[in-house]
């Protein structure tokens, strides 16, 4: 929503102005100008702000209401929404085989995709999630349906077409050339929509889904268009063992593929990490998406979040939609 006037919300406010510091204003105000927050302060300073404002509209909250910042989901698979809570009696790879591969196939039907993506965007907004970092699908047309859902309902989003060149069933695998081509199309189509709400994000699924030879091409795309990168990293012991069993010149852990470690990179899960790997993320400025529900429900393990924070790695929360 964009405001042509200054809108001032008055009431109880809780927010964090810096990490690990919660600020409570039992009676404060938030001023919004042209759709952006212009000021957050205590009620006593409201009159001073009014002197600089034009066409002020005031919204008074009830005593039972609290204003908080919009929530940010840093890792979410939008297409998995129809099967939330299903298959939590198996580990990750069994769950993928039994439920996910068949489900994603349905998203070739764009009407089905629209129904699901409209539903998840509206549900997230109803919970206060105003920003989401989406893994959409491997198909660009369906991914664009999610883009349009976010725009329609006013959710800020980073939306990624998932790049998969190996390691999945044949109907989900693409050649590198196809993956690059379709990712470029996503980037261009989002640009045509001329929106500040939604941005593309480069999304190589995991080190099991792309080869070491593929990575530089995806990193180059991110650099060319100044985009973020998201991927899965060290989610399960089984996944790490699979990676180690494959030829080193074909697959490597992303922590050994230095091109992908950047200040604009976000890695999901990161459950089973060595101190050296954590330090590499810190040194590169990369961030992680901590997904505790997913990690617990699929018995992936427990992420040592404190180790990342103490090393200086940026940490966000994600649902993973499990």
TrEMBL record:
Gene Ontology molecular function terms on file: guanine deaminase activity; zinc ion binding
Cofactor: Zn(2+)
Name this protein carries in UniProt: Amidohydrolase-related domain-containing protein
Domain of life (superkingdom): Eukaryota
Keyword Zinc: yes
Domain Amidohydrolase-related: start-end pairs: 66-319
Alphabetical list of InterPro entries matching this protein: Amidohydro-rel (IPR006680), Metal-dep_hydrolase_composite (IPR011059), Metal_Hydrolase (IPR032466), Metallo-dep_hydrolases (IPR051607)
Keywords linked to the UniProt accession: Hydrolase, Metal-binding, Zinc
GO biological process entries: guanine metabolic process
Gene3D superfamilies the record matches: Metal-dependent hydrolases, Urease, subunit C, domain 1
Entry's Gene Ontology cellular component terms: cytosol
Family matches, as SUPFAM superfamilies: Composite domain of metallo-dependent hydrolases (SSF51338), Metallo-dependent hydrolases (SSF51556)
Pfam family, one: Amidohydro_1
Keyword Transferase set for record: no
């Amino acid at each position: 929503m964009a405001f042509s006037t200054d809108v001032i919300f008055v009431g109880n406010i809780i927010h964090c102005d810096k990490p690990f510091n919660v600020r409570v204003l039992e009676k404060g105000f938030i001023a919004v100008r042209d759709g952006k927050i212009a000021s957050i302060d205590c009620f006593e300073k409201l009159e001073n702000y009014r002197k600089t404002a034009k066409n002020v509209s005031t919204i008074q909250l009830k005593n039972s209401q609290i204003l908080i910042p919009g929530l940010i989901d840093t890792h979410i698979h939008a297409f998995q929404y129809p099967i939330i809570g299903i298959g939590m009696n198996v580990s990750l790879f069994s769950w993928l085989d039994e439920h996910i591969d068949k489900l994603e196939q349905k998203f070739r039907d764009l009407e089905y995709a629209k129904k699901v993506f409209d539903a998840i965007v509206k549900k997230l907004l109803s919970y206060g999630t105003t920003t989401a970092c989406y893994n959409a699908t491997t198909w660009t047309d369906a991914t664009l349906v999610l883009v349009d859902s976010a725009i329609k309902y006013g959710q800020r989003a980073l939306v990624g077409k998932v790049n998969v060149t190996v390691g999945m069933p044949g109907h989900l695998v693409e050649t590198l050339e196809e993956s690059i081509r379709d990712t470029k199309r996503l980037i261009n189509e989002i640009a045509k929509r001329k929106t500040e709400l939604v941005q593309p994000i480069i999304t190589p699924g995991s080190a099991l889904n792309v080869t070491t030879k593929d990575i530089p091409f995806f990193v180059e795309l991110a650099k060319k268009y100044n985009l973020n990168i998201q991927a899965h990293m060290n989610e399960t012991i089984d996944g790490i063992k699979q990676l180690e069993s494959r030829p080193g010149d074909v697959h490597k852990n992303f922590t050994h593929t230095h091109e992908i470690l950047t200040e604009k990179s976000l890695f999901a899960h990161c459950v089973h990490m060595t101190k050296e790997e954590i330090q590499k993320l810190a040194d590169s400025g990369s961030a992680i998406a901590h997904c505790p529900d997913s990690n617990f429900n699929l018995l992936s393990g427990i992420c040592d979040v404190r180790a990342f924070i103490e090393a200086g790695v940026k940490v966000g929360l994600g649902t993973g939609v499990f």
